[in-house]
Specification:
alpha+beta, Glutamine Phosphoribosylpyrophosphate, subunit 1, domain 1, seven-stranded antiparallel β-sheet, six-stranded antiparallel β-sheet, binds glutamine, EC 3.5.1.118, hydrolase, GATase_2_dom
Amino acid sequence: MCRHLAYLGPPRTLAEILLEPEHGLLRQSYAPADMRGGGTINADGFGAGWYPAGSAAPARVRSARPLWGDTSFAALAGATSTGAALAAIRSATVGMPVVETAAAPFTDGRWLFSHNGVVRDWPGSLAGAAARLPVTDLMTLDAPTDSAVLWALVRARLRAGDDPADVLAGTCAAVDRDAPGSRLNLLLTDGATIWATAWRHALAVRGHDGATTVASEPTHEFPDWTQVPDRHLVVARPGHHDLYPLTGPRARG
Ligand code: GLN
């Protein structure tokens, strides 16, 4: 299962956020610690999005290659500072294509989004929900994958102005009804707040030095990581986060 990470806080280089931590995304690409649900390494591409200073819209790079072999990204990451980033490394679900456009983060306007997991019985299980989307959204999907369809579903509600926490909670609940047993760790940011779900997959959060990192796996051995309990939503801002159960009112959204 893929791994993802979001950071909000004082400006750091993408290399400091993603590549240099002893168990950061770079190491997790070839030696992840917790691949519950399948896969051994995350070699099927990666992506990183960040908010350049003064810009409400993120920049993003994606690749179908393993993170560990991309020297161009390493050079870019060392030279790029940001106070808000969301990145992912991919282990493609069997049957889904290994292409650049299937790598998270997906983006639209000010949003960056990632899905870590799998939708059971895809594509049939998502057909009903997808059929309610505008046809043009389906015609312009990033890739024929479960994650890209989840992003289209989330994006449609964000565009309608729905509350991001309700959107993620409602998406998890609805998809789990249609596709029971799915793993639905969703990660969303607008550069100011992070929203993340733990739904049958690992997620941890750490507040440190006026920053907050939300990640599939702790990037350091520091004791200040909190494991997010299953079926919970994290809402995080720099240096602060709250946890909400996803089985309560939010899950009805
Ligand atoms: N199912 C998604 C894909 O193949 C995500 C994979 C994962 O989390 N390992 O893109």
